[in-house]
## 1
Amino acid sequence: MTTPTTAHLLVVDDDMEIRQLLSDYLQQNGYRVSIAADGTAMQQMLKTANINLIILDIMLPGKDGLDLCRELRATSDIPIIMLTARGDDMDRILGLEMGADDYLPKPFNPRELLARIKGVLRRSGTLPHGHNHEINGNYRFNGWILDTSRRHLLSPTGTAVSLSSAEYRLLLAFVSHANRILSRDQLLDLARDRSSFAFDRSIDMLVSRLRHRLQDDTEQPEMIKTVRGEGYLFLPSVETVT
Amino acid sequence: MTTPTTAHLLVVDDDMEIRQLLSDYLQQNGYRVSIAADGTAMQQMLKTANINLIILDIMLPGKDGLDLCRELRATSDIPIIMLTARGDDMDRILGLEMGADDYLPKPFNPRELLARIKGVLRRSGTLPHGHNHEINGNYRFNGWILDTSRRHLLSPTGTAVSLSSAEYRLLLAFVSHANRILSRDQLLDLARDRSSFAFDRSIDMLVSRLRHRLQDDTEQPEMIKTVRGEGYLFLPSVETVT
DNA sequence: CTTTTTTATAACACTCTGTAACAACAGCTG
DNA sequence: CAGCTGTTGTTACAGAGTGTTATAAAAAAG
């Protein structure tokens, strides 16, 4: 590898040998690498280090990788590459759309892992980690502009649309997690006031109000699509503007 | 279920009633089933029969299920599904660490047990399974376009056709496994909501609804053809578009 | 040709979602 | 402080989505 990189990876696998092997290999290729044996160790690591990408084995003792992946997605946009056993039920896993950014069946060629890591980091724009509400600037989608400094929405025709504070937080959650199915619980985590413990159906109401602001049709949505039994999906491709 | 299988299961449970109930139910669903009341009977059975999968109650007189599981793992790779009391996460964790392949809390829906059995057998490489979904991109067939990022369908004339979630998942299963006969069970695995354990006949209904969306004639199908006794076949050649 | 098996679909039951209406509450104004 | 305004969660109910049952039609078997 010619280009130096400073990305910090976290390898989560219960097999010590694999953990060490991957860690060594990735370090040789210029990455900073931390390791964790299970979900709790992973959460611990995420608190103390600024992780750019997680490599997550789907088979883990206790909570499995799918659960962890879903939980992570509730609060974070850190890219995830899932490792699965070959011959495993990949169809099912992919169908679940847990929000992993890529999948790699074991056993794999280490160079392929490297390629995927590069690809995922490139696609994610190597965003800084953390909760969602940190970007200072504007988001643009379908001609609309969400102004995060003024907490303000501009329609494609340029007129200002006022948003209540809950509507703003919800829209921010959507634009910063676009093209991914978000469950009601995840949306509550992302959009609600810390102090409130709302019934998760209250998100429906908020979505309805936000759709109305965006003049989005429920039946043929251009922006917020309902995925029955799973949650909501923000369709437009979102551009961050500074 | 209709697909024949020759897997040989061993049910280990000290409760005679449960043993008999499970045995009957699993046999009705095409499995060969043997039973054992405790660890010694289990070991005896393993010597005399070629068992493909063990369903093991964690609560047993004498040596309990965890011990048996660990002993088995010392000498054998036979897949194990553990049955335990609901809500006991400790058991689940211990079971998985001891090498169980899956875990099912009692009381359970018998169909869920069937689903787990199928899943474990497939993962263990005993049964074949299909290829992978593409994660991103669109599919084109007969002029139709399935847009996976927006989860909707465009007709040859360019009009948007809305699909329900289940219809979308079924169509995705078809286009990503085109020109292959897919059994009802396979389609259920690929298309069902992960929390539901439906009868395989419910696929018929879904196919019927999807055909209607695609304006496909049942008698002279251009897309979804029925293969009597085997399942369904997606006829068009599918092109993946990015 | 009759019987049996399998499939297509209508009808139904049940679940999930959209939203109107209302209640509770906060902030503002006079 | 009363009264107004806007926000936000809850309740209620209509309507859409989905699995099951029932039944007729089609295909295979006898």
## 2
Amino acid sequence: MNVVEVSKVLSNETRVNILKWLKAPEANFPPHQDIDHFDDGVCVGYIQDKTGLSQSTISTYLNSMQQAGLVIPTRHGKWTYYKRNEEVIEAYYTTLKEVL
Amino acid sequence: MNVVEVSKVLSNETRVNILKWLKAPEANFPPHQDIDHFDDGVCVGYIQDKTGLSQSTISTYLNSMQQAGLVIPTRHGKWTYYKRNEEVIEAYYTTLKEVL
DNA sequence: AAATCATATCTATATTTTTCGATATGTCGA
DNA sequence: TCGACATATCGAAAAATATAGATATGATTT
């Protein structure tokens, strides 16, 4: 976990919101068509709808978040689901507390 | 305390280092000429020396850190001392934990 | 196999951030 | 009050980020 890299992700309102929403997918997103759970997170399209930004922008965001280790992608058919990576998020807190 | 604004500050290695160093000034900086304590933090010149960056860059950094509420400046004669603002740093942790 | 759908990647432009040198401001000492 | 010193601010160039449309890839459906 790289503090600077994670901080870059968090220095954008939309990306912070995505992480926030993914904390409670049932409350923030409609149910998926093919699956009846959010165990692997939420598909890109739903996240895009909620932000109002373009598909490519959201895909880029999610990619940077994945690079930083904050989210984990899982492919289900034609959809990619993204969920939070709680370990890395926790590690960010911990490292900040230690280092800062 | 604004999460995005603070995150922007933390998305730079040098600025993270400055906060780190200011946690233990005695260990990281030489004693000041005019004062024999670090109660108000460390003067800009010492911080600049330690980073190797230009005077104007460090002044800009410290200004952005102050805007974000992370540090508090105090003027002593011709020197400006900067110290950490523990309350805001703590608020950042707390808010992250809640929000994220 | 072709059309369709979801997502990723590429390319390009606009905006923001980084960083510096030059200059301004404020303070002290001669 | 004048020069020297510490810091702040200004203006500019380079680098990074944001964002979108176009296109590519991978999977499903017909």
